[in-house]
Amino acid sequence: MSLNATPRGQRLHIALFGRRNAGKSSLINAITNQEVAIVSGIPGTTTDPVAKAMELLPLGPVMIIDTAGLDDTGELGALRVQKTLEVLNKTDLALLVVDPGRGIGEYERDVVNRAREQKVPVLGVINKIDLYPEAVNRPWQQELDVPFVAVSALTRRGINELKMAVVKAAPRDWALPTIVGDLIEPGDLVMLVIPIDKAAPRGRLILPQQQVIRDVLENDAVAVMVKERELKHALASMAVKPKLVVTDASAYLKAVADTPPDVLFTSFSILFARYKGDLPTLVAGARAVKDLKPGDKILIAEACTHHPIQDDIGRVKIPRWLRQAVGGELVFDVASGGSTLPENLRDYKLIVHCGACMLNRREMLYRIMQAQEAGVPVVNYGVLMAHIHGVLKRALSPFPQALAILEEEQVEFEDELALLSRYREHR
Amino acid sequence: MSLNATPRGQRLHIALFGRRNAGKSSLINAITNQEVAIVSGIPGTTTDPVAKAMELLPLGPVMIIDTAGLDDTGELGALRVQKTLEVLNKTDLALLVVDPGRGIGEYERDVVNRAREQKVPVLGVINKIDLYPEAVNRPWQQELDVPFVAVSALTRRGINELKMAVVKAAPRDWALPTIVGDLIEPGDLVMLVIPIDKAAPRGRLILPQQQVIRDVLENDAVAVMVKERELKHALASMAVKPKLVVTDASAYLKAVADTPPDVLFTSFSILFARYKGDLPTLVAGARAVKDLKPGDKILIAEACTHHPIQDDIGRVKIPRWLRQAVGGELVFDVASGGSTLPENLRDYKLIVHCGACMLNRREMLYRIMQAQEAGVPVVNYGVLMAHIHGVLKRALSPFPQALAILEEEQVEFEDELALLSRYREHR
């Protein structure tokens, strides 16, 4: 599936407003690490609103709309208003870039008012704090009644905070364009291994299963659903090999054993770790388990307070296994609920986050970025449980980038199996 | 799937209480049309609570528990109480059979009180009204504070009302044991054709699709889901033929065309017409279309008042097609909402009921029985739309009993095609 074909609403649309020479183009370069706009100190280098699709790590696919030409010296009067409204119409979030040397004037107030009319959230960006370091202290937010972040596009200071503010201001329903669509071609078979146990709701499928089936169908592929016991039989009933096998985490070992080695393999939890969060970062978090030492503090972070099954994973199974992996005692704190992670993240050597079934992408990604900002490795239940079961490497087979992070550190399949046998002995 | 393996909660458990010789056994025979119990006028012929699995038309599978031996002259004291509680523990509905010659006494009050403690609904049955015709007028309900039906097991008078009262008193979650389980064997492939259109909820599957997938998996079979455009390709990707193809009604023609003739074929709507209602009766309703004459009154019965898509089917498409099939005007009344069908059913020549997505089996079956009681043919949207599309015969291939009702009247596939072409010309 072409990224450019992503419908709006999945690719976050960010419009940059700001007076000529406020530094919109160089800010785009700073947040994307790409030389996409022609950066120049001469006012008016960019002359028309241009929407560019790009990947913004760790946010994923975004659309950046540069509104050069709609600023204080560009189109005038009715035409400027009309073009500004056109841009706002397809915008999820407006970044208003302010040059502290010029401050806030009629142009900035006009953008905020029009965005408010269109119900588009505005995030103020004070740029050039390398040139105007005292600008950081000015009460911008009070002047314009929108949140502000201070950055230097030149030195990249504040760029991470800006990305976190962007995530925080993203729409609630912001999602990646697809769950499995980039892994498959039209007509491919995708095998979904779904154990039926007492935890499953009677006569229904849980939402992640529904979402993956829908995504397979929307990508013109074929979804084959089977219990783990019938997987081998179902594979033999197919005239062609499936492209991908996705298993529920509770059937990891049976599903790995029955899936041919040349078929891509993963789990629903790994798919959703990617869909809702940032898989490479979470894999790096799993890798960090080997650096833990007895006495280290670990934060178990739960999004909500009412999930007994996840409680059991987070409060009993994972702590038991981590103690075992470390060969000594560890200190576990549990943070339940709350809209973000607690402030004292730097106290911890590892954050273990729940599966985030009650969080949207915006919320989970923000939490991951909080951990990154604090320099603390973060993993989630799904990725860690795959690690514990010794199948993380296999379950990352569709994701070379995340796999590279795991392999970089020479955590080999054999090591994972050794970890697993230790886990099994003690559960 | 063996009917005897049906778990409780799906097979309705009905316990018959009543004093010795009140006619419990002959009442069982009357409602089941089977000689299952030994009927005798000598008190105490049946001597122990016996649970018997049986089919009760149109209710489907039930379990009848005859409590002979727990009556006024059987076990005494504590033992009787204990055994009665044991029976009530596995009972969904208690029928209390009263002999009008003996009336209500301590035994009847005890059964009602114990059932109330166990939260089991009680339905009173005045038997032998052939012998005691005046018993019909006695205010039984006031005496015992439970609803009463007057019947004669001998002449079968009131037996239909009794069945309707049983349906009305059934638990809300009463369901058939399976949706497709009786059509397939373990390991079979079941192909589900699911168009993805704007009506489908984003990222989800509608409940009937989820229910069929679950049912396929619970019966150890393999569910293959595919859009209608990929059906042919998916069939070619299988090493074995599927046992059954189930399509969404919106893809009837494409799915029929691409399904091999020796593969069972049906639709989600037909499956749910059977699961929630009584398929043979609804097929007889479709057959009755050919008996309609211009000027006839037709009732469009909708369970709820807020379903625009079904509105379009029930208020536009079906009336237009029925007028066309009849070759003249028809009078359409619409009944929306309400817990049962309106009282004046006998005014109508046909009742066309909605898909009942918001009704449970108990409610839909009661409405079908109301129509039967009034002697008016009843069909639902799903069965009628299959008829309109000319695929009803094909879509009944898994259901010989319903198919026989259609074929008895020589509605041939060719006739259906003729009906369809008329429908197409005018939609």
UniProtKB/TrEMBL annotation, chains A, B:
Gene3D superfamilies: 3.40.50.11410, 3.40.50.11420, P-loop containing nucleotide triphosphate hydrolases (3.40.50.300)
Domain Hydrogen maturase F dimerization residue range list: 179-277
The organism's place on the tree of life at top rank: Bacteria
GO biological process annotation, one example: tRNA methylation
GO cellular component labels: cytoplasm
Key words, A-Z: GTP-binding, Nucleotide-binding
Entries under InterPro entries matching the protein: FeFe-hyd_GTPase_HydF, GTP-bd, HydF_dimer, HydF_tetramer, P-loop_NTPase, Small_GTP-bd
Domain Hydrogen maturase F tetramerization: 281-398
Single annotated GO MF: GTP binding
Residue ranges annotated for the G domain, each copy included: 13-128
Protein name in the entry: [FeFe] hydrogenase H-cluster maturation GTPase HydF
Originating species: Desulfofundulus salinus
Gene from which the chain derives: hydF
